[in-house]
């Protein structure tokens, strides 16, 4: 969607970032779960402007291509599919799922999830590190879902992961950015792309993540469970764009006291 500031739009359009062999312009990644239908999912995808879509390998039949299938509505020749290992609670489960995704989708991309706690769906950090080490060695482009743990993100980078994906809040919670300080430290501490994942509930959450300097934002429930998913997808798109522009513009310093916006010099004296 164009705005009244074509120079800003052009600057955003010209920016890219890379994950493995793929280059992206959109800094919004969306999911494929909890929508009313695959048709609604596709409409939200179009409204979001996203170029990459994450797919739960264990929850979607990726061999189906009929008119009622996910791949019919979101074809791999139009969008980059990012398979994920959602629902995996052990290293072995994640490895088997990743290898299945590679076979079904002919891709090296994998969003790695090794869940450690079924109530919070927080990642198993040790399991994630171990699975990442194995998958990187097998040639996967690994994008690991991880806690907002600075050291864990550094370790994943050192293992060769293409990005790190720290959570903003628990999956599906919609709580927004719970710990912006940790995210800022992660952004200062790693060189790979940082994709904020999980917990984004509305467009302002996405904007905050981008204002902090995140490379991109991944979300699913915040769009899928909105009262109007299509409008929310559009709002998320604009939030990501606004946040990125604000990050690049550089915010003014915070001050404790007021500072007049008009200069003192040259003002009209009233006598």
Structure description:
The chain starts with 5 loop residues before the first helix and ends in a 22-residue tail after the last helix. It has a three-stranded parallel β-sheet with strand order 3-10-9. A three-stranded parallel β-sheet has the order 6-7-8. Strands 1-2 form a two-stranded antiparallel sheet. The chain has ten helices and ten strands. By secondary structure, the protein is an alpha/beta fold. The protein is globular and about 85 Å long. β1 and β2 form a beta hairpin. 39% of the residues lie in helices and 14% in strands. The protein has one domain: Alpha-Beta Barrel (TIM Barrel).
Key terms:
3-stranded parallel sheet, TIM Barrel, globular, 271 residues, single chain, 39% helix, alpha/beta
TL;DR of this structure?
The chain has helices at residues 6-14, 38-48, 70-73, 91-105, 125-137, 150-159, 180-189, 203-212, 221-224, 229-249; strands at residues 17-19, 22-24, 28-30, 52-56, 80-84, 109-112, 141-146, 165-166, 195-197, 216-219. By secondary structure, the protein is an alpha/beta fold.
- Classify the helix fraction into a percent range: 25-40%
- What string, H for helix and E for strand, traces the elements in order? HEEEHEHEHEHEHEHEHEHH
* Second CATH tier, the architecture: Alpha-Beta Barrel
The description of the largest β-sheet is: 3 strands, parallel
How would you sum up the global shape? globular
- Number of separate strands: 10
Helix/strand class: alpha/beta
Q: Could you state the CATH homologous superfamily?
A: Aldolase class I
Tell me the number of helical segments per DSSP (H or I, 4 or more residues long).
Answer: 10
Relative strand content: 5-15%
The fold-level CATH name is: TIM Barrel
CATH class label: Alpha Beta
Q: Average pLDDT across residues?
A: 91
Radius of gyration computed on alpha carbons: 20 Å
How far apart, in Å, are the first and last alpha carbons?
A: 53 Å
